[in-house]
Design brief:
single chain; alpha/beta; TIM Barrel; 8-stranded parallel β-sheet; 3-stranded antiparallel β-sheet; 16% strand; glycosidase; endochitinase activity
């Protein structure tokens, strides 16, 4: 990848798509989620184009489309104040976002993804494979290239996103045919290259998206959440090639042996500020050490951060990430052997479902429960294959399983 600073200072306005946006051949991509204003201050989330002007940011997933079956809302926090409802619908038309998406793409060459799901997504998927495919076609008509004769409401007007990101954090069904249909629609489009990404937890296999990840849906990159879990960057051990907790090596093995796309890139997901997540924020030397270690793996594609409002409230952090990506590690060094150790998973409590365009955080968490019989809070993990933590839920909740790998208190 070309030097981003030189590019902007010199000739960015000529052909920005050459060096901006997601680059599948690079290991210094930076993705930052926008739309939820998790920092929580009224003035902390600026309009999208403000951030696209930053030369260090390549990918911006818009968070979130949290109603998929017959979408009635999109949730981008305070950005919704600039939107108006389509006639006879609660779905909002957002001309400011339409203009900003085009600016981000055409002026700054950014990759703009629409993230599907989020912590407040509650539909649980689709009743059947055919229903999932129908929903995928509808989402494609709403946010992909405009289709001749279509009367579907398009929240971003004539703007076309560059792809779709999956952030599923609870049990669901029939997302495989949904993802496959979106992929097919994207690959059949001749207008430009479209991308598919996902944001699993670092715990492998991912409880909510394993069905999509076991070679059934082709992803271009993953935004792996290495926080709020025992495998997060805060548990990285410097100076050793074998990690007992931090498990980028496990995901690299997934990329090479399980992923449908063997050239998939893995982005190291980290909190952008000390208050951006329940746990996992690291700074300075430790961040550089984690990135340097991760760059040994050929699947390493860069860094993802949650979220934009937190990042811009954390002065100097983006520069630290950029510097860490620029230093050490070429991606050609053989990766250390894959070594895994079973650990209890940090319990996760989804935030309450907000009203349309209210501010939400991705997740809130409690400390990881020890396997000594302590009680698990609502939504926390209480069982599943390989799980060694506590299995008894706090009153009045009970432990329910959504598959072999995941049980949670509900």
């Amino acid at each position: 990848m070309f030097s981003k600073t030189l590019t902007v200072a010199g000739i960015a306005s000529l052909v920005p798509q050459v060096w901006a946006g997601f680059n599948s051949a690079a290991n210094d991509n930076i993705a930052v989620y926008w739309g939820q204003n998790s920092y929580g201050q009224a003035s902390s989330q600026q309009r999208l184009a403000t951030y696209c002007a930053n030369a260090d940011i390549d990918i911006v997933p818009l968070a979130f489309l949290n109603v998929i079956v017959n979408p009635t809302t999109v949730n981008f926090a305070s950005a919704g104040d600039k939107c108006t409802a389509f006639p006879g619908s609660t779905l909002l038309s957002c001309p400011e976002l339409e203009a900003d998406i085009k600016t981000c793409q055409n002026t700054y060459g950014k990759t703009i993804m629409l993230s599907i799901g989020g912590a407040t997504y509650t539909e649980g998927g689709f009743a059947s494979a055919s229903a999932a495919q129908t929903a995928a076609d509808n989402i494609w008509a709403m946010f992909g290239p405009q289709q001749s004769g279509s009367t579907v409401n398009r929240p971003f007007g004539t703007a076309v996103v560059d792809g779709f990101d999956f952030d599923l954090e609870a049990g669901n069904q029939n997302f495989v045919p949904f993802g496959q249909r979106l992929r097919a629609n994207m690959d059949a489009a001749s207008s430009k290259k479209f991308y598919l990404s996902a944001a699993p937890q670092c715990v492998y296999p991912d409880a909510a998206m394993d069905a999509m990840l076991i070679g059934q849906v082709s992803f271009d990159f993953l935004n792996i959440q290495f926080y709020n879990n025992w495998c997060g960057v805060n548990n990285f051990t410097p100076g050793t090639s074998t990690q007992n907790a931090f498990n980028f090596d496990v995901w690299d093995n997934w990329a090479k042996t399980v992923s449908k796309n063997k050239n998939v890139k893995l982005l190291l997901g980290i909190p952008a500020n000390s208050g951006a997540a329940g746990s996992g924020y690291v700074t300075g030397t430790q961040l550089s050490a984690v990135i340097s270690y991760s760059k040994q793996f050929s699947s390493f594609g860069g860094v993802m951060m949650w979220d934009m409002s937190q990042l811009y409230a954390n002065n100097g952090y983006l520069a630290a990430v950029t510097a860490a990506l620029a230093g050490g590690g070429s991606g050609s060094t053989p990766a250390p052997p894959v070594t895994t150790t079973s650990k209890p998973v940090t319990t996760t409590t989804p935030t309450a479902k907000p009203t349309t365009f209210s501010t939400v955080t991705r997740t809130t968490t409690t400390a990881a429960a020890s396997p000594t019989g302590s009680l698990v809070s609502q939504w926390g993990q209480c069982g599943g294959q390989g799980y060694t933590g506590p299995t008894q839920c706090k009153s009045p909740y009970s432990c329910f399983c959504t598959g072999a790998w995941w049980c949670q208190c509900q």
